[in-house]
């Protein structure tokens, strides 16, 4: 095991990797309940969705661990699943098989782009300052997710955001998770993020936040699998997508979102997992992108929306995960959860607040690498740092920063500094913003 995953070589231990895998799983476990809740509105059986969500996440996370040997985990992405549910009921006339075929097609195309080297080449063309900004923006985004999940920040009365109800049980559990995590981290206690989650889950029992499981074992249901090859008006669903211009445009929008979301997530996890080089490159990025791209297609085929690399993977990396053994552990737990999902779903999103907020704090260190005194460097970086959390979209925030970088460079007469692939990325973002 040690030789297979290079555990000792990366200054880790098998115990640390297993613990980090559990930390990542608990930080992501909410998707087992949330994904079926979102997609069942499209007409897919909720039990089948829970089963396929676990199996899809488990299989692709294990693939990530074995193929890329980095601590990244995959599962059905939030936001995309809500979009697909809406597409199924509106554009696709209630046929969820066609909607999932849109995801399947997007995954296949983006996989081809990776195999051709385009996706990796675009990442290499990104200026170092923007790579640092992506890490900072992701840190704020991760912290914002944790604070929102705990109700610590909410939509305000007459304002976009405000402080939540401090007497709310969810708020209290979130604060407990933060305090425990930070207190243990101050004392350099191993597994502080995991302990913080567990303590918050226990604290949530008398507060009514941690719900009693509805059972122990859930039956497996595979009825959501195979959407792209299902009949859709006399032809396979995937054929209907390929012949419908509207659905092709939607597929392009999803491709852009997946393309840059994963880039940002990979850089964020690489920073915590210590496989981000000094010039901002992610080690093993090609393998990571291949698995992530294939995961999107697998998600569409399994009927669970796009499976993508989860930003919550940073929690496991921050807890010491350095190898693919962390991912394999997370993946195995997801597969087991397919059988025991009623028990797993007792971990509330509020309980993971502390882990996500602490990871956000750690990622803020990248801000010191940005020369804020130089407008050509600082302003595009700021647009990413502010854009990611303020738009609640990784890809939108990155797009704003890319466009700002090109505009400032043009104003300064430094167009020659812009690499050709950056021009392509900016043009793609402009199209994405207009059609999304």
TrEMBL record:
Transmembrane spans: 20-40, 46-67, 97-118, 166-186, 193-217, 237-257, 332-361, 381-411, 418-435
Organism encoding this protein: Collinsella aerofaciens (strain ATCC 25986 / DSM 3979 / JCM 10188 / KCTC 3647 / NCTC 11838 / VPI 1003)
GO cellular component terms given for this protein: endomembrane system; plasma membrane
Name of the protein in question: NCS2 family permease
Key word Glycoprotein present: no
Keyword Transmembrane: yes
Main location: membrane
Classification via InterPro entries: Azg-like, NCS2
Places the protein is found: Endomembrane system
Topological type in the membrane: Multi-pass membrane protein
Similarity section: Belongs to the nucleobase:cation symporter-2 (NCS2) (TC 2.A.40) family. Azg-like subfamily.
Keywords: Membrane, Transmembrane, Transmembrane helix, Transport
């Amino acid at each position: 095991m040690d030789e297979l995953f290079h555990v000792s070589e990366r200054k880790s231990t098998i115990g640390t990797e297993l613990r980090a895998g559990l930390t990542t799983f608990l930080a992501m476990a909410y998707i087992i309940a949330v994904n079926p809740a979102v997609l069942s509105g499209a007409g897919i059986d909720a039990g089948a969705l829970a089963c396929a969500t676990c199996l899809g996440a488990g299989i692709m996370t294990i693939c990530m661990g074995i193929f890329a040997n980095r601590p990244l985990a995959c599962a059905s992405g939030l936001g995309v699943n809500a979009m697909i549910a809406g597409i199924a009921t509106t554009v696709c006339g209630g046929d969820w098989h066609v909607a999932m075929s849109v995801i399947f097609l997007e995954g296949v195309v983006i996989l081809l782009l990776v195999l051709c080297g385009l996706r990796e080449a675009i990442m290499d063309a990104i200026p170092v300052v923007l790579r640092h900004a992506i890490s900072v923006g992701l840190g704020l985004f991760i912290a914002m997710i944790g604070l929102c999940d705990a109700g610590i920040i909410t939509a305000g009365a007459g304002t976009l955001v405000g402080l939540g109800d401090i007497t709310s049980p969810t708020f209290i559990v979130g604060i407990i998770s933060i305090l425990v995590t930070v207190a243990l981290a101050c004392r350099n206690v191993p597994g502080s993020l995991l302990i913080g989650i567990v303590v918050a889950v226990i604290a949530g029992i008398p507060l009514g936040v941690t719900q009693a499981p509805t059972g122990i074992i859930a039956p497996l249901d595979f009825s959501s699998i195979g959407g792209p090859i299902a009949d859709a008006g006399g032809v396979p669903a995937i054929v209907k997508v390929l012949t419908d211009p509207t659905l092709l445009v939607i597929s392009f929008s999803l491709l852009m979102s997946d393309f840059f979301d994963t880039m940002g997530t990979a850089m964020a996890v690489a920073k915590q997992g210590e496989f981000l080089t000094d010039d901002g490159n992610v080690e093993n990025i090609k393998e990571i992108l291949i698995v992530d791209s294939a995961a999107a297609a697998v998600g569409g085929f399994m009927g669970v929306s796009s499976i993508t690399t989860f930003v919550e993977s940073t929690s496991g990396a921050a807890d010491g995960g350095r190898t693919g053994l962390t991912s394999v552990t997370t993946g195995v737990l997801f597969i087991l959860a397919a059988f025991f999902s009623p028990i797993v779903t007792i971990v509330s999103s509020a309980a993971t607040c502390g882990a996500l907020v602490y990871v956000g704090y750690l990622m803020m260190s990248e801000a010191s690498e940005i020369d804020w005194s130089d407008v050509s460097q600082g302003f595009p970086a700021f647009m990413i740092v502010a854009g990611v959390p303020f738009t609640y979209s990784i890809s939108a925030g990155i797009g704003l920063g890319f466009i700002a970088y090109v505009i400032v460079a043009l104003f300064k007469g430094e167009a020659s500094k812009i690499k050709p692939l950056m021009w392509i990325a900016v043009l793609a973002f402009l199209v994405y913003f207009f059609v999304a």
